[in-house]
Amino acid sequence: MSQTVQQNAEAHDTVVVVDFGAQYAQLIARRVREANVFSVIVPHTASVEQILEHKPRAVILSGGPSSVHVEGAPQIDAALFDADVAVFGICYGFQAMAQALGGHVAATGQREYGRTATRATEPGTLFSGLDLPGAHAEFRTWMSHGDAVHAAPEGFTTLASTDGAPVAAFEHPERRLAGVQFHPEVLHTEHGQRILEAFLHDIAGCRADWTPANIVADSVASIRKEVGDSRVLCALSGGVDSAVAAALVQRAIGDQLTCVFVDHGLLREGEAEQVERDYVAATGVDLVVASVADQFLGHLAGVTDPEQKRKIIGREFIRTFEATTRQIADDRGIDFLAQGTLYPDVVESGVGEGAANIKSHHNVGGLPDDLQFKLIEPLRTLFKDEVRAVGRELGLPEEMVNRHPFPGPGLAIRIVGAVDAERLAILRRADAIARHELAASGLDGEVWQFPVVLLADVRSVGVQGDGRTYGHPIVLRPVTSEDAMTADWSRLPFDLLERISTRITNEVPEVNRVVLDVTSKPPGTIEWE
Ligand SMILES: Nc1ncnc2c1ncn2[C@@H]1O[C@H](COP(=O)(O)OP(=O)(O)OP(=O)(O)O)[C@@H](O)[C@H]1O
Ligand SMILES: O=c1[nH]c(=O)c2[nH+]cn([C@@H]3O[C@H](COP(=O)(O)O)[C@@H](O)[C@H]3O)c2[nH]1
Ligand SMILES: NC(=O)CC[C@H](N)C(=O)O
Ligand SMILES: [Mg+2]
């Protein structure tokens, strides 16, 4: 378990979300945090001891695709229910809980997907704060199940039912156990957040202390404690996360901090200048710029595999930080490196046991084994919207806090194929046009991120100026998202897409085709590599 998680677990009431393969485990964790309670996610393969290591006040069992009554389905160890921790089951988690405690779960023959009317038969603690008109009140819930709890375990009160779920909610407040068949975490469920909060606050007794002001105070205190009077190098990219991480470290230790910005030749047009100008102006921080494009491009020459690109970039970042340290360190040296790593970077890099490695984020899975620095990652447990809230709390300007994310490996993972200076120049021009037109349309805020991708190894035939061309396609990938864990393709207006397409094919001679990516995440990721 990472040190940050340990610290948070000690300072705040923690909720552990056990992921049974749900589409919504991330969403559950976020909703818990929206109730101002700290939460972490663990895979269902975690043992009860591993769950309890987080010192949770409550555990939430997520939904999942399996059927609890089928042999080999993931189960929950009944020891959890005697561990003096509150437990809330959702969908599969509700069924697993019912079965483990002696209730009866079976297929119903009546599947319920999507909007479902749930009849509350008893307010209990879970529903007591809801404005439900009388007994047998109906409210709209979101369901996704084919199995159902037919009999609640002994001692539990049944609170609701639906046509396809004889027991749609139950609780045993004295044992601090409860569960629901529907999904309280999705916005389509009426009163969903209130029901979750009733569990968190009224049944589990979690304090609502996970707020931006507390996050800042805690991180500042723990950075001070850890760093003492040592010096810290902070990797600054111009993006939101590292800007907020640097501002936190600066608040904690002031001029013991030096920031380093790596110009690795994989940046977008104007980016290096912007960091030097804006960030220093906003914070007055001490900034070193390392201009190392030749070094990065040299190591990337001929490399086409995305994971290999990330590993090379992760390694060269660290080599650059080491070289910078040698350049600027006095006789005390620099032991600490601060980075703006976020919780989704950690989850996607498959660091948690059992989680799949989707891609090795250069700053997590891409780090070299012989790392000389101790890492300070004050945002390692946060989602992006929480980072933005912390940035506002620290007084960073709104333009900085709202900036679209840009991945550390930069344009290297937006060129499908090997990376070289010429290809980078093509992509940089196309990207600048797309960004410019998006900003000019006033729709910047509607889009989470807008990758522009060059399919460098693909060519297609075109006709331009009455002549045949054989050029490359550019892919536009504008997406909307809440936290980059899931995303949808942005429905940008056709006239904006047309302007971008026309300008790119007119102004970038090597490109003769512009295509729009209309894939959500999942199944696609946001970046192409
Ligand atoms: N060009 C760079 N120079 C120095 N450090 C970098 C650079 N690019 C990335 N990093 C480091 O890698 C971390 C992860 O990069 P990432 O792009 O995920 O975050 P960010 O740039 O801080 O924020 P955003 O997600 O908004 O772009 C950064 O927080 C920073 O510490
Ligand atoms: O700093 C980073 N280093 C990386 O190696 C990396 N890979 C993806 N990303 C960013 O993470 C978010 C999710 O991206 P994917 O849907 O492509 O996994 C998106 O915001 C991506 O831009 C990265 N950021
Ligand atoms: N979404 C879920 O958790 C589904 C649980 C189980 N597979 C069912 O069909 O009932
Ligand atoms: Mg970035």
From TrEMBL:
List GO terms (cellular component aspect).
cytosol
**CDD domains per the UniProt record, alphabetical:** GATase1_GMP_Synthase, GMP_synthase_C
Q: According to its UniProt record, what is one Pfam family this protein matches?
A: tRNA_Me_trans
Residues engaged in binding ATP: S237, G238, G239, V240, D241, S242, A243
Record domain GMPS ATP-PPase: where: 210-403
Specify the pathway. Purine metabolism; GMP biosynthesis; GMP from XMP (L-Gln route): step 1/1
Write the Enzyme Commission number(s) for this entry: 6.3.5.2
Would the keyword ATP-binding be found if you checked this record's keyword annotation? Answer: yes
Q: Which PANTHER family match?
A: GMP SYNTHASE [GLUTAMINE-HYDROLYZING], GMP SYNTHASE-RELATED
- Record-linked HAMAP family: GMP_synthase
What is this protein's function? Catalyzes the synthesis of GMP from XMP.
Q: How is this protein named in the record? A: GMP synthase [glutamine-hydrolyzing]
Q: Which organism is it from?
A: Propioniferax innocua
| Taxonomic path | Bacteria, Bacillati, Actinomycetota, Actinomycetes, Propionibacteriales
